[in-house]
Inverse folding.
């Protein structure tokens, strides 16, 4: 009985093997190259009519003022399209929410272009974009596996923890 069962199972396995090596029915190989490329993010229609004043000045030289808890901080912006488009929205006063005891975040009503990467090391004062509409301001340094688009960083983050406090805080971004 055992022998018959073993032989039956062996025959079933041998018959199933050709099915594993058959040509897949997926048409992934037939997709035109243009649709195989990585998804890109473009600016939303809401931003199309806005003048991009920041594009006239290299964003690496562009600074803004961040005000929180009655203190002002200078932020130097990154030289990328995301930072340029963010500046187009200024001035912004946001009620930024607490997350993980190391960051404040706010979901913008518009999408910004994004080019996410995994920075690994997050530094206090980093201003990042998570996804294409979540503005994140980090006030503690730590290691992260998440992907962000760099927008800029606070030049001197001393006092940032105290200014941002716990819970939701009002943060103003202005030129």
């Amino acid at each position: 009985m055992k022998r018959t069962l073993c032989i039956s199972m062996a025959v079933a396995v041998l018959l199933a093997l050709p099915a594993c090596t058959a040509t897949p029915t997926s048409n992934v190989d037939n997709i035109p190259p243009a649709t195989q490329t990585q998804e890109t993010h473009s600016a939303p229609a809401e931003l199309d009519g806005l003048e991009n004043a920041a594009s006239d000045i290299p964003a690496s030289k562009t600074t803004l003022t961040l005000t929180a808890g009655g203190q002002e901080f200078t932020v130097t912006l990154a030289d990328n399209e995301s930072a340029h488009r963010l500046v187009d929205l200024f001035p912004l006063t946001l009620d930024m929410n607490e997350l993980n005891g190391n960051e404040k975040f706010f979901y913008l009503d518009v999408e910004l272009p994004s080019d996410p990467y995994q920075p690994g090391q997050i530094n206090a004062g980093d201003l990042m974009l998570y996804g294409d509409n979540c503005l994140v301001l980090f006030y503690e340094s730590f290691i992260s596996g998440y992907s962000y688009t760099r927008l800029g960083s606070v030049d001197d983050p001393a006092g940032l923890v105290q200014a941002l406090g716990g819970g939701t805080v009002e943060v103003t971004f202005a030129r």
